[in-house]
Amino acid sequence: MSLKQQLTKHIMAAMKASQKQELEVLRYLMAKVKNVEIDQGEQSDQQIQQIISKQIKEMDEAIRDYQRAGRQDLIESDSAKIAILQKYLPEPMTTEQLNSLIDEIIAKNPDWPLGQVIGAVTEATAGQANGGQVAQLVRSKLQ
Predict the structure, then answer these.
(1) Please, are residues 21 and 80 in contact by the beta-carbon 8 Å criterion?
(2) For residues 86 and 53, what is the distance between their CA atoms, to the nearest angstrom?
(3) Torsion-angle region of residue 25: left (phi > 0), alpha (psi -120 to 50) or beta?
(4) Percentage helix, strand, coil, to 5, in the chain?
(5) Which range marks the domain in which residue 71 is found?
(6) What is the pTM of this model?
(7) Quick one: 48 and 19 in the same domain?
(8) For residues 46 and 23, is the Cβ–Cβ distance under 8 A?
(9) Is residue 115 over pLDDT 90?
(10) Which of 67, 86, 105 corresponds to the end of one domain?
């Protein structure tokens, strides 16, 4: 079953169970996916996961703003939404796994510049690692 089909199935289940917040989050996500599909065509599971990751990143940034403003109610709301969205992402790589992957890519391609190594690692992780963390680890290994 594709990720899009899973989302549709979970929307129906949330409607039947009257889970308002989950339903709201999943409907919003499906609207985002459909908007991207209008512009770019059918999206693969990996592309949908990238959309989910982008939504989580935006909510994380909003949470930081809410913390500065002292808005605990909004922090809790967005944290709950993030928890719902994270169910649809693959299990994140551990730092040890990521370091091992970086070492392997550097060993195979010792002549590559920093940006090319970061790109290869990002592609290999397929959404299982934060881009900032990847860049930081690659920089530390190449310097």
Answers:
(1) yes
(2) 8
(3) alpha
(4) 80, 0, 20
(5) 3-86
(6) 0.75
(7) yes
(8) no
(9) no
(10) 86
